[in-house]
Amino acid sequence: MKNPVESLLEDDHASLAHLLAELDAELAKPNIARAFELLDLFWARLAVHIRAENLHLFPALANAAPSLFTGKGSLPTFEEAHSLLLRLRSDHDFFMTELALMIKVMREMTGSQLVSDEEAGDLRQRLTTIAKRLEVHNRLEETQTYVWPSLLFDQQTVGRLFDRLQNELENIPPRIAKIGIEFDR
Fold it and tell me: Is the pTM of this model over 0.85?
């Protein structure tokens, strides 16, 4: 049975994956104006997800007593855990940097009346690179870091971590929350 932290963050991954697929479909048309709106929404939603992990999940895991990391079963050694957390944070930086570059390029494109198939193809290629790395990243989180809280902490601590993560995920900037509601229709 999944712990609440695992379920919450995996559900958010699924929601983000759906949004990413919509974005790719709009780039394939290419419908740059709609794709730009979806990219903006995806970037902001992913930033909120990353913020939740960086502020709450990763510090909770990094600050757990080293003796809790046994290297047996589903738990890594303390050193392996810290190495994975560094890798995941590096991925977070990569995603935010690459998506910001895409936004910059697409903002310039939306000002232009004509977008070539080559330009749209370049954007899709960049998005594919992001998506592939995100898929590997999410698999690591879902099979490792999201499982660890229930193995390291008591139920009450897991519950408090869940509450903090959920509050962070719900703390969406109003501009993005409005866009998200419009696209949920």
Answer: yes
Structure tokens at 46: 């992913």
Give the integer Cα–Cα distance in Å for 15 and 158. Answer: 23
- CA 75 to CA 153: how far, in whole Å? 12
Set out the domains of the chain in order of their start, with CATH numbers.
Answer: 4-184 (1.20.120.520)
Sign of CA dihedral 136, 137, 140, 141: negative
Written as six digits, the tokens of 177 are: 């929350």
Is residue 29 helix, strand or coil? coil
Query: Which residues, 6+ apart, have CB-to-CB distance to 66 below 8 Å?
Result: 78
The pLDDT value recorded for residue 182 is: 52
Would you give the DSSP letter of residue 4?
H
Give me the phi and psi of 40, to 5 degrees please: -60, -45
Q: Are 46 and 95 in contact (CB under 8 A)?
A: yes
